UniProtKB/TrEMBL annotation:
The lineage of its organism: Bacteria, Pseudomonadati, Pseudomonadota, Betaproteobacteria, Neisseriales. Signal peptide: none annotated. Pfam families: Rhodanese (PF00581). This is Rhodanese-like domain-containing protein. It comes from Chromobacterium rhizoryzae. InterPro entries: GlpE_sulfurtransferase, Rhodanese-like_dom, Rhodanese-like_dom_sf.
Length: 127
């Protein structure tokens, strides 16, 4: 059985919040923000520098352009959406180093970061 310490350590190894992503980008870490929602949602609003790869279409061909030496951060709308989890699972199965953005686009905005549709603190993505 997994201990509490192991559980929380594993959880933090595979999840990031908006501040974690912001700090990693500011530190120059190689992250690729993956919008796992449908293309229509991506076109309406997304994180600056994000790449649209809907989880429903993820396979070897649709992810061939993604770098293998970066951390892929899967995200969706927020806690009412599980596209980021489905995307993270598919990307991990394809052999990528993946993390999931907790709270998704909703908490990103709540924390004051810019999106393609809203002002806020700008993000430089090494995508």
């Amino acid at each position: 059985m997994l201990s509490q310490l192991d559980f929380y350590a594993a959880k933090l190894a595979y999840e990031m919040d908006a501040a974690d992503v912001w700090s990693a980008l500011q530190a120059g870490e190689k992250l690729v923000l993956i919008d796992a929602r449908a293309e229509e949602a991506f076109l309406k609003e997304t994180l600056p520098g994000a790449v649209s790869v809907p989880h429903r279409t993820m396979d070897e061909a649709s992810t061939a352009h993604l770098p293998r030496d970066a951390v892929l951060v899967s995200f969706c709308d927020g806690i009412g959406c599980n596209a980021s989890t489905k995307g993270a699972l598919k990307l991990a199965r394809l052999g990528f180093n993946v993390r999931e953005l907790q709270g998704g686009l909703d908490w990103w905005v709540r924390d004051g970061y810019a999106t393609t549709a809203r002002a806020g603190v700008s993000v430089s993505c090494a995508c």
